[in-house]
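Now for a sample.
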Amino acid sequence: MKQSQQATLAAPVSLSGIGVHSGKPVNLHLHPAQPNHGIVFLRTGLPGGDDRLIDARSLEVTATELCTVVGDRETGAVATIEHLMSCLRGLGIDNLLVEIDGPEVPIFDGSAQAFVEAIDSVGVVQARAARKQLKVLRTVRVELGIGWAELRPNSRGFQVDVEIKFDNPVIGRQRKVIDLSPAAYRREIARARTFGFIGDVEKLWKAGFALGASLDNTVAIGEGRVINPEGLRFADEFVRHKMLDAIGDLALAGYPILGTYKSFCGGHRLNIAVLKELLSDRANYAIVDGETRREAGHAEIASGVAVPAFAPDVH
């Protein structure tokens, strides 16, 4: 990212939708925040009328099965945060209070486009405060089965290199590389939707997942083809969505990353694991701004239902 100043929204904006896993309605309010505030969730609607603040940081991640969850499910958590976080990082939003009255961020059409449009409706403003970045100093790597993820030094910006491989011929093997910028995010990533496999639907339903999934918010794969009548938005929409998810998960670094992220057959679990591995040793990274300064780290298709893949870490 080339922007050197921190940014937030010019005005509040609200959205409403349903959670892809819970199937429950939820209201989301995005509030501008002061410099150095970061991205913070305000979870409302908890038992007893309590509210809870949850920092959008990797230390707050409590689950990565099919989606990324921050906070404690017993005292208040927010699930499926990756599409919103991806949009915020992709468009260069540093500071925001995300007020949400339910347990899961709305899925909308399965991509980040609704968040992009909401932000565009109010605009973005920059503060005088310098934007800090997390600079990768040493390569770190995490492996899981055939999958792996790395964060590597790259002083020119944030490059994302994602490759996926599925036995299903509809997807096969796909790879995409971008240098992240707001323009590239809007053009290449924001509209890519989550995807799912029809054969897994009953298993996920029994586990309490995918209760809000439909052809309106998931690219459904079955019988050797894409079931959705409109087809794909991109020929390689699957890897683009995996990249969208990775950008969102890595936004939990708390700062824009100055480095290269590279993965093969990755997913939420690997994304968070490699980020935590980076942050586990202060020799791996530095927090920098204008000057290089170091700081402490810390389906049944007939009924229109498909399974969101949020696809597994190992294929």
Q: What stands out?
A: The first helix runs from residue 82 to 90. The chain has two domains: 5-130, 133-303.
